[in-house]
Amino acid sequence: MLPYTLLILLVAAERLAELVVAQRNATWSRARGGVEYGRGHYPVMVLLHTGLLVGCLVEVHLAHRPFLPALGWPMLALALGAQALRWWCIGTLGPRWNTRVIVVPGLPLVTTGPYRLLSHPNYLAVVAEGVALPLVHSAWLTATAFTLLNLPLLATRLRCENTALTRCAPVPA
Length: 173
What we know:
Layout: H1 2-31, E1 35-37, H2 42-62, H3 69-93, E2 101-103, H4 121-135, H5 140-167
Helix pairs in contact: 1-2, 2-5, 3-4, 4-5
């Protein structure tokens, strides 16, 4: 269980690094007239994502979930792939990436990197991680609960982000 605990702590540290990047990028966006959308769902999102990490540790330790190699290794690969996709998104969006929905009016949509394949690739990473990270160590209750709670939140987030991007789209010449 110690390696799994260390994995979850590393993911938590990575989340803190994301928040530092997000704060820096929020300052950049606001300095350019960035508008924030969806403030109401943001605290719920933070709580749910924190709950994912806590749930992983609590379920594995209290329910004595085993590491099952046939499940754990593929789920670890998927969780690491989700992290790679997330950081590809962060790198592609540069200062426009954020954990909040902040859009600078007039900037064109990003259509490079993973955004040439999907409109919202970061959310694919979130869904994959929400399933895979708990299942690395058989925490199926956490995987199920996060997924079921994340679905309506993700629907809200996608509506919010799509509305924001539409409202702030550049005016065609």
